[in-house]
Amino acid sequence: AIIPAAVSGVPAQNGLFRENVVKGWIKADTIGGITDSYNVSSIVDTGGGRVTISWDRDFVNGTYVPLVCAQNAGSAGTPVFCIVSNVDAPNTGAVEVNTYNSTGTLVDPNYFLVLAIGDQ
Fold first, then answer.
1. pTM of the complete model
2. How confident is the prediction for the chain on average, in pLDDT?
């Protein structure tokens, strides 16, 4: 296994460090069917346009960065806006993701796409 070093000073160009490695990711549909994932124990549909993703290995704190996106919501080309819930901010073991259409209504996309970077 390759074990990345910790950053010391300015990161080297094209270097692999613990801080810049993706620690978890998932592609899942709206009914909790995981297409593929890494470091994800489960995904739970918590309502229309909302899912909670639980990590196998927890993060050290809630300051990690979850990047979220969605693939289609209904017809092709329908815009979808993804956010991490501001009510249930990321915690060490899970993150809630919400998806909205252009009018601000929660909608289920065809797929949720999430990755996370941070200390574990």
1. 0.81
2. 82
pLDDT digits (tens, 9 = 90+) for 91-114: 899 998 888 877 888 888 888 889
* Token output for 97: 């993701």
Pair 22, 116: CB distance under 8 Å: yes
Tell me the β-bridge partners of 29.
111
Q: Where are the beta strands (DSSP E) in the chain?
A: 22-29, 34-38, 40-47, 50-55, 65-71, 81-84, 94-100, 111-117
* DSSP calls for 41-68: EEEEEEETTEEEEEESSPPSSTTSEEEE
Q: For residue 40, list its beta bridge partners.
A: 55
The tokens for 71 are: 């693939």
